[in-house]
Design goal:
alpha/beta
Length: 153
């Protein structure tokens, strides 16, 4: 498979749409078995942006959950619109739907920002350790947040 084909293909896995109270439908794909890694993309992107790392993660025997952010890819925007609190609520709904008790949430750019909003808005949902990494380039910095998640009892 060519690099271009690898970049544009929709990943194979179990496709789910999570319905939110405001009518938003979140497009999710899960695959693999083991500890959960949730991948949250940045603004103006979609879940396919992680295609090049998927096989590397699956080779490490993890369950990968990808999703299109609200208003991106195949996910819709409900009546509450777009905003960091609504989108952090989407993260919470995804964690609950996939019953993530112990896992890692990796956010890129906006995905990283929203991971921080999740931690601030829903501190009772998860215990977490936050690693914030900046990878500067000539024109901008790419921000990643990696959250180690443990469901509080």
């Amino acid at each position: 498979m060519s690099l271009a084909d690898r970049l544009i293909r929709i990943p194979e896995g179990i496709v789910t749409f999570i319905e939110r109270p405001d009518g938003t439908r979140l497009h999710c794909i899960s695959m693999g078995e083991g500890p959960t890694v949730i991948l949250a993309h940045g603004i103006f992107n979609e879940l396919r942006c992680f295609n090049l790392v998927l096989q590397h993660l699956l080779n490490r025997k993890v369950r990968v959950v990808l999703f299109d952010q609200r208003g991106h890819g195949q996910s819709s925007i409900g009546t509450d619109g777009l905003g960091s609190r609504q989108m952090a609520g989407d993260y919470k709904a995804i964690l609950e739907f996939f019953d993530v008790k112990d896992g890692v949430l990796v956010g890129h750019s906006m995905g990283a920002f929203l991971a921080v909003v999740l931690a601030e808005t829903y501190p009772s949902v998860v215990e977490l350790s936050l690693i914030h990494i900046s990878e500067p380039t000539r024109r901008y910095a790419i921000w990643y947040a990696v959250l180690g998640l443990k469901k509080k009892k």
